Amino acid sequence: MEIAENNRAEQWRDYRRKRTAALLFGVGAFLTTGALALAIHICAGNHIVLGAALVTMTLAYIAYGVAIVRFHLWKCPRCGRRFIGVFDIFSFLRRKCFHCGLPVGHQTGGL
User: Fold this and answer.
1) What is the secondary structure of the chain as a DSSP string?
2) pTM of the complete model
3) Do 15 and 107 contact (CB within 8 A), yes or no?
4) Which domain holds residue 63?
5) Is 107 inside any structural domain?
6) Is residue 15 situated within a structural domain?
7) What are the φ and ψ backbone dihedral angles of 71, each rounded to 5 degrees?
8) Does residue 44 lie in a domain region?
9) Angle at Cα 64 formed by Cα 97 and Cα 22, nearest 5°?
10) Which residue, among 105, 84, 102, 82, has the nearest Cα to 93 in the 3D structure?
């Protein structure tokens, strides 16, 4: 039983890591967009700086997309289906599994 509980705890840590990564990459992508706007305003004639800012912004949005997909594909420890619904726009606010209702961080119980 202890092995199952340790596994469940690790699954919830993975959920929190993925949620945190998605949030941080989202904020980072938003901030790089602001940095690009600032670079356009300050360095209008310097194409190297603008190109570097554009590449950085593109990479930030790609990283954000990957983090969001990984977060949305995370499987519920109880039912094994996606924890977040297909069209769940408020996924970061979700407090229970879309399919079986398992609360976030719940450590006991199984199928």
Assistant:
1) -HHHHHHHHHHHHHHHHHHHHHHHHHHHHHHHHHHHHHHHHH-TT-HHHHHHHHHHHHHHHHHHHHHHHHHHTPBPTTT-SBSS-TT-TTGGG--B-TTT-PBTT--S---
2) 0.77
3) no
4) 2-72
5) no
6) yes
7) -65, -45
8) yes
9) 35
10) 84
User: What total of structural domains would you count in the chain?
Assistant: 1
| Token duo for residue 2 | 């202890």
Position 94 in a domain? no
Q: Could you read off the pLDDT tens digit of each residue along the chain, which spans 111 residues?
A: 455 667 888 988 998 999 999 999 999 999 988 888 887 878 777 788 778 888 988 999 999 999 998 988 888 888 888 888 777 666 667 788 888 888 887 775 544
For residue 70, the Cα-to-chain-centroid distance in whole angstroms is 7
Q: Token pair 């570097």 is at which residue? A: 52
Burial class of residue 44 in the structure, from the number of CB atoms within 10 Å of its CB (0-12 exposed, 13-18 middle, 19+ buried)? exposed
